[in-house]
Amino acid sequence: MRICVVGAGYVGLATAVMFGKLGHEVTVTDIDPARVKTVNSGKAPFYEPPLEKELAKLVRGGSLRATTDRVGPAVDSRFIFMCVQTPSLPSGRIDTGPVKAAARDIAKALKRSPDYKVVVMKSTVVPGTTDSVVRPILEKGSGKAAGADFGLCMNPEFLQEGSALRDSMEPSRIIVGSMDKRSGDLLAKLYTPIRSERIRTDLRTAEMIKYASNVFLATKISYANEIADMCVRFGIDSGTVLRAAGMDPRIGPLFLKPGLGFGGSCLPKDVRALRDRARADGYDSRLLKALMAINDRQPVEAIWLLEREVGPLRGKRVAVLGLAFKGGVDDIRETRAVPLVTELLARGARVVAFDPMAMPGFIKVMPTIEYARSAAECLEGADGCIVQADWKEFSRLGRKEFSRMRSPVVVDGRRSLDPAKVRRAGAKYLGIGFGSPGAD
Questions:
Q1: Closest residue by Cα to residue 369 from 393, 401, 344
Q2: In terms of Cα–Cα distance, which of 59, 6, 5, 68 is closest to 32?
Q3: Which residues are annotated as catalytic?
Q4: Residue 107's beta-bridge partner residues?
């Protein structure tokens, strides 16, 4: 089967590699020539080693290629997956510009081909978008009718950066939303080799499932942070509290880890977008508003912990370890490092930062702070340290590194370090929601 994937980002490449591994011939299209060149060299344009390894195999074998031509490959394909970005506008509303542009190119392909094709929306869009925005563009540009001359489906993804390929090959569920039975049947059949439960819905329900899932994950994270922030003031270790709470099968342990808040390309954007969409229909969600307020406040919690131990930060040197929105990726979208560093600077601190992969991107956003070449160099002469992303190499820091600090105080913003190990290494450990401030 020939498949065209529009967009060479996380979702697009994970989708393309998945179908390539299932034996299909896949063409990835992207408007960025540099990104296309990177993919055709067998490399991913982002840091994700497992996906890149499989991508390289498929490129070498000739079953996956990339091009800037978004029309030709769609003409030759049976399935066309739309995997373009839907970034946030200042209002929180999603920017449908990339989706509209992709739809116009796909419409040209539909017009040129006599064959029945299935257009699959995989980009995250608010309920109603596929039917009210994408469909009219496809029909007007092609002169054909959706549901009769071509199929139209919504197939949301549930990927995590760092494990995008695994999540594609072993999804927790496959949602097939369609406006007609024929296209839904064809899409469901395409996924036959993957053994996961399928749910068949209409287009709007499929769109909403994606938002409902991400908002719940954001809720669990914010709940864990609220409990943790209270526990530290009560002199209680929130880790034990949340672990016990997560043993209740009605709650579950996943995403109950306190930290500096959620970031990345999905959760913040989706919470804002759903709130904006609900307001457009006259419903103001107090829950979604509260989620973002909690998340916006959370980086200040780490600074509060540090100041409780070392005093006012004016003139003090603070090391920030980890700049990506989480460890294991180079993505700085919505990273909590930005508000964290911004607040540190506002309090007069001198900030030095390090990240194994994300520094090139972060320097473009915050060029004026100091950057180190290693975690050890970052700690040199620091009056305190805040771990912002949970890179595994940070958990290996020991006495040799912490002894280089002027004041060996470590605020673990992701609860990823071993408190006992940090103490044995001669440093003071303060974790988000960990016991009483200033006490071991």
A1: 344
A2: 68
A3: 266
A4: none
d(CA 301, CA 254): 22
Helical segments of 143-202, H only: 164-169, 181-190
State the DSSP H helix or E strand holding residue 409, giving kind and residue range, or none if neither.
strand 409-412
CA angle (29, 34, 38) in 5-degree steps: 80
**Nearest 5°: phi and psi at 163?**
-140, 35
Contact between 423 and 440 under an 8 Å Cβ cutoff? The reply is yes
For residue range 162-202, list pLDDT tens digits in order: 999 999 999 999 999 999 999 999 999 999 999 999 999 99
- Torsion sign (Cα): 51, 53, 58, 60: positive
Contact (Cβ atoms closer than 8 angstroms) between residue 265 and residue 214: no
Residue 3, pLDDT above cutoff 80: yes
Question: Do strands 350-354 and 317-321 pair parallel, antiparallel, or not at all (unpaired)?
Answer: parallel
Question: In whole numbers, what is the pLDDT of the chain averaged over residues?
Answer: 96
Q: Which is it for strands 428-431 and 409-412: parallel, antiparallel or unpaired?
A: parallel
DSSP 8-state assignment for residue 393: G
Q: Supply the pLDDT for residue 434.
A: 84
Q: State both tokens at 178.
A: 């369609």
pLDDT digits 0-9 by tens, 266-302: 999 999 999 999 999 999 999 999 999 999 999 999 9
Question: Counting Cβ atoms within 10 Å, is residue 170 exposed (0-12), middle (13-18) or buried (19+)?
Answer: exposed
| Closest CA relative to residue 73, chosen from 121, 23, 123, 113 | 113
pLDDT the model gives residue 440: 42
SS3 24: coil
CB 63 within 8 A of CB 40: no
CA distance 204 to 223: 28
State the sign of the Cα–Cα–Cα–Cα dihedral 400, 403, 405, 407: positive
Q: What is the pTM of this model?
A: 0.93
- Tell me if 382 sits within 8 A of 405, measured CB to CB: yes
Q: Token pair for residue 268?
A: 């913040």
Q: Which pLDDT band holds residue 435 (cuts at 50, 70, 90)?
A: low
Q: What is the dihedral of CA 228, 233, 326, 194, to 10 degrees?
A: 0
Specify the length of the chain in residues. Answer: 440
Over residues 91-119, the pLDDT tens digits come to 999 999 999 999 999 999 999 999 999 99
Element holding 80 (H helix, E strand): strand 79-82
Cβ-count burial 301-325 (b if 16+ within 10 Å, e if not): bbbebbbebbeebeebbbbbbbbbb
